[in-house]
Fold each of these.
Amino acid sequence: MKTARQRAWLWSAPSVVLLLGLLVWPMIYLVRLSLCEGGSQSGFGIGGSFYKPGTWTLKVYATLLSERYFWEVLGFTVWLGFVVAALCVVLGYPTAHFLWQLPKRWKPAALVFVIIPKLSSLLVTIYGLKIILGDFGPVNAALQALGVIKEPLALQHSATGVVIGKTLLVLPYTILLIWAGLERLDRGLISASRGLGATTWQSFVWVTLPLSLPALAAATLVSLIWALGAFISPYLLGSPDQITLAVDVQRQMFENLHWPRGAGEGVAMLLTLTLIAGGFALIRPREYASPR
Amino acid sequence: MNLHKSILSTFCLLVLASLMWPIVYAMWMSFTPGEMLLPPKGVWSLRWYEAFFARSEWTDSLYHSLSVGGLATAISLVCGTTAAVAVTRHQFPGRQILQSAVMLPLFIPALVLAMALLPVMRTIGLWGSLVSVALAHSLWGMPLVFQAVKGALEDMDPNLDLAAHGLGAGGTQTFFMVTLPTILPAIGVGGLLAFIVSFNELVMALFLCTPAIETLPKVIWPNLRYTLSPLVAAASGVAVLVTVLLLVGVWLLLGRRREETPIR
């Protein structure tokens, strides 16, 4: 007969092994790799060395910190993250509130509407967007027909394109998280405030909004995290001069074949994320546990 | 007052529509009979789907994606379910840590994970195999299964387990004859979600796939950068079709779960 403790460890073993092998070890490897010398760039593929194993150097970090290019890329990444997260909250909160107030039988259909873009391939969304935002796409065509613009707007290969694309990719997560938070709310409180004479608007500002702040904060943080890792939309919709850190990591790995530098930028990305998420956690509102 | 409300509703419907629009537009495009990127008007054709299934480059990638998805789902199911049982049914030091650690991969940018996994896969000699991609995808499948199963275990009536024990069943017997059948729909939902995520995942595939084992998103990827042929729309159509079919599966399983609720 096994003891309770042993049985608990047995149940946790598969996930622990997976996490140690595929998360902890690779992350340690990533940091170690960033401390290696760059290798001789003798072609791509097996046999080519992308780094010199066994060497210890801070060269990568010294280069990154002193380089304007890196700071520009990092700056654009953080800017994009905040812009996209802000847009997601502004667009997502009213939408989530709207979905929350739908009659019950409409909700499953609405859920499908939000979930399908999130679950189907991001590439399909991007493909559709590339056509829609293209010089001859429906958006430019409509604006030209209405006489708003004469020349087609550069909606892709520009920061505008990246922001539109990334926002559409992150928005479903924002909506789902806020919606889930609202569903957990005690509807009795809203009826009570209405019963006490509050208008719809007052009961929203004084009851619903404060109670949904924790969900709103969580949704903002998650949107920010996802937006900071932006890779696909800047790559496909952005201009080559304005790239995010993620795009540059991929370049370092596959085009410059400088793995330590790619790893160093990966570490920089994780640090930025941790700093922002940590700062956010400090200022975020707590659950309204009990009235003071 | 009512004017405000209808403006707000219109705004929200527009937001929802813009989420779906690109996908619907891409699907529409895939039925075009011509070579141009113009959506079909009047005449619809399946020629681009025929072209998709006629080229081994595409069908192979579809096969690779399905294999990776299946394998990733299997790994996610084992690791996610056992972890959910561990944190809901057992008390042990590190329980809280395990609970957060399982969810952690979802909050690390895909690209960082992918680039960290590449040298590790090379070191352990899995690089260039479908297994490496499946393992990477299970980092995301596991938390999904874990959440679904954990929810089901928490909802489960604890008296069921006690009753089985009282009737003389051992721990293993109780698990396989009482617990497992009860949480099976949740396991199914988690597994399907894990499959969908793996099937559509690009970034890890981008780093870990060698030309011999490219998955469907990996083959679509360069086409998006250079050519936007309607063939890509058809490939996307195939991906969306697979996803929607699996979502229908999730729907049916969730429906079953709800029907069973009154019996509990």
Note: The longest strand of chain A covers residues 37-38.
Amino acid sequence: MSGAMLYGFCSTVLVGLGLYGLIVHPELLRKILAFNLVGGGVFLLFGVIARRGAAIGFGGDPVPQALVITGLVVAFAATALAVALLLRLFQETGRAILQSDKLTDAPSDNSQP
Amino acid sequence: MTNSTTAGGFLLVLAIVLPVVGVLLSLALGGRQAQRVAFVVMPFELAVAVAIAARIWRTHEMLQYSVGGWIPPLGVAFRADGLSAVMIVTSALLICGIGLFARTQFAAPRGAETRAPLMFWTLLLAVWGALNVVFIGGDLFNLYVALELLTFAAVPLVSLDGRAETLAAAFRYLLFALLGSILYLLGAVLLYGAYGTLDIVLLSGRIHAQPVTWAAISLMTAGLLAKAALYPFHLWLPPPMPALPRRPVHCCRGWSSKRRSF
């Protein structure tokens, strides 16, 4: 039980770190990585719940484990799509951040000198 | 009764399978045929949508199909009630309208095949299929996969013309959509942990107000709102635009199915 709790806390930390990175970093590659961090946290939570639902003869509830595999594939596809889009964006503009992020950052930098 | 396939259940499968077959055919036959495939699929799919709505109108019962004969605690069910029938018909009409409207802009070229028309028609069918899965999915995880499918089909559609600002808008949309769907998934896994099922109807029988339920519902609502609130960002995009505002309406459906569970 304490092991499951430990992994539960780990997944919470991962989700929190990922959310922070997703919101704070303007660089798009970091945002993609942060999204993967959140995803990792959520999938770890799936594992924790599978472990908690362990019954006689089973090391864990098989349903969340099946869901994790599907979720991993979906997250991988999302990452691939995002990286492809990022590469194309970089080819077109030479930048790897969104233009309007800089625009919205600029006034806030001026307003709090 | 609620756990088995009802008489018209195969219509629900057709609603998903037809666009997917269209997508595969478009990819296999190449750019010149993609538009033709889309225009062949459209009337059939519209007919299926109307048939679903008519059957529900007549019988006043939910259509249900259990995939592979597995009933919901273990299997995945497709369900259509009145609301989802209305949504299916609306999206069918909209996509047929988009197809007619975009016919000239994305007409198949005479000479060498180009990618834009092929991708447009293929992705339009993909969006359609994904929308139908969203509307009839009876399982929270199935809904998550359907929402991601919708994102994967809609993002390339947004960035189809390949200009820098279009790509940036598509990327912004993708980020919001990914954040939204991962929050939704977090809510879904919390619900599974608390109640041991992801099926919406089974869940509505077991769910009761406790902190984990509120946390899960608010995460899922926040996720769906993050996906939905984004559509004003690409108002400048003419043809695929009408495909995107479906999302807020879906959000309402997400709300209503959660509401039903209380």
Note: DSSP finds nine helices and two strands in chain B.
